[in-house]
Design a protein that fits this description.
Main location: secreted
Organism: Oxyruncus cristatus (sharpbill)
Radius of gyration: 21 Å
CATH superfamily of one domain: Interferon lambda
Helix content: 55-70%
Order of helices and strands: HHHHHHH
Protein name: IFNL3 protein
Strand content: under 5%
Family: Belongs to the lambda interferon family.
Largest sheet: none
CATH topology of one domain: Growth Hormone, Chain: A
Distance between the termini: 55 Å
Keywords: Antiviral defense, Cytokine, Secreted, Signal
CATH architecture of one domain: Up-down Bundle
């Protein structure tokens, strides 16, 4: 009889103990980034083709651009998983916005596949992080720098920068999909 009364208490204690053993600072349920753990080769090739087209036909020489957004003192791999997702979502927003600006006919066709992939990735990331999540200090500072740069910097410099660094965004996306530390 005593054993039956202790069973619910033991289940409760065990449940609380196990709940404390697992981190709560992870991606939200229903957030599946599994497909980004291995960015497909054809997506990277599409991005490289787009970059070549941009350099060949659009890149304007002689611009005095001084943007260093992705030259950070910290590595995305050292961020918490939710911070990595916030970082990648901001990078995707920036990159998508810049890709959508160009109206050069050859580039418009070349960018379609990469743009569609990036938009889908951004949609998959939305809602992955709890709304109450507060980014770390270094990430918060970077997000502020990104916003400031988008206001103060020349649009053609921003566009050039985004396209040159799109492979880094894909690497950061892959890193965000890994729920453990990545390299």
């Amino acid at each position: 009889m005593l054993c039956l009364r202790l069973t619910p208490l033991l289940v409760l204690v065990l449940g609380v103990s196990l709940g404390a053993a697992f981190p709560h600072n992870t991606l939200r349920k229903g957030c599946s980034l599994f497909k980004y753990k291995q960015i497909m080769v054809h997506e990277k090739k599409a991005v490289e083709k787009m970059q070549k087209e941009f350099q060949r036909n659009i890149r304007r020489p002689g611009r005095n651009c001084n943007i260093w957004l992705f030259d950070r003192e910290w590595m995305p791999a050292h961020l918490s998983v939710p911070d990595r997702v916030v970082l990648v979502e901001a990078e995707l927003n920036f990159t998508i916005k810049m890709l959508q600006l160009s109206t050069h006919p050859g580039f418009t066709k070349t960018r379609q596949r990469s743009l569609a992939f990036l938009i889908q990735a951004r949609e998959d990331l939305r809602g992955c992080v709890a709304p109450s999540h507060q980014p770390s200090g270094e990430l918060s500072q970077w997000l502020q720098n990104l916003q400031g740069t988008m206001v103060t910097e020349n649009t053609s410099c921003l566009e050039d920068y985004a396209i040159r660094h799109i492979l880094e965004v894909l690497d950061d996306l892959k890193c965000a999909a890994l729920q453990e530390k990545c390299s």
